[in-house]
Here is the input.
Amino acid sequence: MVWWQQKRKVGPTLGRAGGTQGIDAPRIVQSGMAGLLSGGLVDGGTLTIASGSVTIEAAYHDIAPESGSFDNLAEMKGGYQGRRVTIRCDTSGVFIIVKNNDTTEGTDGNRILLPGSESLYLFDVVTSPYGFAFIYDETLDSGNGGWMPEDLVSYFLFVSLADALGDTLYASAGNSWAVLSGNTTTTKKFWTQTGDGAASAAPVIDTIAVGDIPDLSAVYPAIATFNDHSARHENGGADEISVAGLSGLLADGQTPLAHKDSHDPNDGSDPLDTAAPANIDGVQAAATGTAHTLARADHAHRIQHSIADNALLTVDQADAADNDYAKFTASGLEGRSYAEVKADLGLEADPALRRFVIKIDGAGAVIATGITVECPDMPACTVEGWTAVGSPSGSLVLDLWNDSYANHPPTVADTMIATGTKPTISASTKGQDLTVDWADTTIAAGSTLTINVDSCSTIEFATLTLRLRMT
Here is the structure.
């Protein structure tokens, strides 16, 4: 928003050719506007805004809000090429915002176009007795026509100079406008100015220095002395009161001064007695103790581990884990995994690996698709690999379905290979994968394993061997 005052007097205004007396020039008024109207400006009286609009009838008008003391002016009807009008608020305490290119209430050919697309305030009659001067131009608004400020120099002066929050306009030494930029720091600063005794100087914004504050002690000596009175008798004051030689209790109870650091057992001037640490060698009963000492916050007793009777046992292995087995050693307990325990006992390190052989016979013809073998009552195991061979050379894809005995028969919904590589022979007599990547490799005890032929070409007889790890 731009606050702008028209600072020049407007000269005589020529009426439109063929204009009607009483419409374009009804009367000349000598009033508070006499300095402006004496040059021949035609006063058309007060126009009241209606839905953001007024109709221009003369070269000068007072503008009144539709209601209250505030309103928006979006358009001025009655314009023609070269027509001029000067407007201002009709009374004090009234503010009118002249809207720039307003399309809400303004209509084509009647809108007001302001440089910089900024709306501006029309001050009250006391603040801005001169008003604003506008001229109508039919080429504005893409040929629709519109009003523009007649004095662009005054307008641009204020728009171009003071365009940031906190800016202050002032007259420079060359009698021209200058801008004092606002304080953008987080430090509170003040507007100051120092002349030379005869002439003023440009203002600055800065913090207050010590020399900027006058010494008032000589002007108000009694007050200065009174304000300093209590401090004079405090610790370190000019007239400090000492209680070192006093005996008995003071009239008021005194809170002891902070002195905890003097009792620090490590480097205090009056350290507290502290207990010496000792070994915890075995199981002992709880006891309050009788020593006249305190334990420090980081006081610690060493636990002496041992595998003797009634001794305390400690873990002597950094990577001991949940579900480990414990092994006694002279240095404490060690965690042992299932495999490590079997190795310690000389047992087989892993469950037995078995090979499960499945034969698929096409009976002299190419193997048909669909279920070819069912294997009930399977042992608990996991599939670790497969090998397939076939004759004659061709292609074969097998799927494995697995489900419980209660849910027999398994279906494709029970496939173990929802993802991964199915047992496959591709244009060959063999195929193998010893590190399966199936979605499910686990077979539960008692379940049924079904072999399904997904596709086959040429091969009439095939054998599938599964590597099963017993669990």
Observations:
- Confidence is low (pLDDT under 50) at residues 1-40, 153-160.
- The first strand starts at residue 2 and ends at 3.
- The domain at 353-470 is CATH 2.60.120 (Jelly Rolls).
